[in-house]
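Lab notebook: predicted structure, single chain.

Context: the supervisor wants predicted structures on file for every construct in the current expression panel, including those that have not yet been purified. This is the next one on the list. No modifications to the sequence; it matches the entry in the shared construct table.
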Amino acid sequence: MAKKAVKRQKKKASTGLSNAAVIAALISIGIGCLIAYYASDSDNNAQSRKRQPEESKQQQKSHTVLSTASESKEDEFWSLPCAPQDEESFCKGNKSVYSSTLQVFHFYLVDCTLYDSRSRCGRLITDALFDEKDLFQLVNMAKKWMVYGEGSGGPTILDLHSGALSLGERFIDVYSEVKRKKDEVYDADDFAVYNRIKNTVKAMVERQFHVSENSIYLTNPTFFSSITSKPAKTLHDEYWHEHVDKITYGNFDFTCLLYLATYNEEFTGGEFQFVNDTNLEGIQPRNGRLACFSSGEENTHRVTRVESGRRFALTMGFTCDKTKAIAEPDGKRAVAHADNA
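Prediction complete. Output recorded below exactly as produced.
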C-alpha cells in the first residue's frame, strides 16, 4: 500500500510530515479497507456514507468477552483456521490489493512457520509477561514524546521508528521538533525498555504460533496510540471501523497489542472486539495485557468508541518478509535527532 514510511521535509521552518505519506504508511487505526479512500474528497464522503450503518449492525450481534479487565490470563491461546484466500472477501472493493497482499501473506507464512500455515492462525492473550516497572516506564516514555503533539480527533499516534507524531490533522517529526526546541527528552534507558519489550513479544509470537526462531521481524507500522472521547474531525480519526490488519497495513503477518491502561479504570468504552457474521468477541484492555493474533481475515476486528478517559496501547506488527523489517529506534538514532542541536 505504501512504499516508505516517512520522508522528512528539508525546510527547517516546517517540521510537518507529508500527510498522505504518513497515513499511507502508518495509520488509519481501524478504517479498514479505505485504501481507495485517499484518492479524493468525494471518495471520502462516499465511503463515510457507506459506513454509517456499521455500528448499528454490530450492536445487533451477540457479544461475549474473551477476557475481562478484572481477570488475569496466562498464555491462553485459541487456534483458528486461517481465512480462505479467495476474492470474495471483506475488502471486496479492492480485489487487486486484497489478492496481492494475501498471496504475500500465504507465501511468507508457509516459509517461516514450523508447521502447516493453516494450523497456527489464532489468538493469544497473556497478562503474565511484563514487569510493572517496565510498563510504567514505557507508558511514561510515550507520554513524554506525545507532549509535542495531539490529534485533532480522538486518536494521537506516535511512531518512534519514523518520528511521526499526530499534530492536529497532520503529522510532525517529533525528533526534529525536540531538536529545534533544544529539549532534553531522550533517555537511553527508555529505548532499552522499549526494545526489550519488543523482543519479549517477538519471542512469545514465535513460541505460541510455532514460528521458526528469528524468522519474523518487526515491521511498519509499529506505534503508540492514545485515544480519547474527542469527536472525530476527519475519517482518519474513525478508529472504530472493523478491519483486517493484513489488508489495512499490508506488511502484517502477526499483530500484537500491548495495553498500557485499564478498561473501566483509566477509560471507559474502547473495548477490542473480534468480529464475525453473528458474534462479537471482546477483550477488555488491562495494563500489561498482551493480545496477539494472526493478521488475516480470520481475525477481523474493531475497537469500540472511547467514552471517557485516555486509552493507551502499543501496536506491534510482525512480518515474515525480511525485506519489510524495520530497525529498532535505538539510542544513536534518537541522539542524532534529539541531542545534536
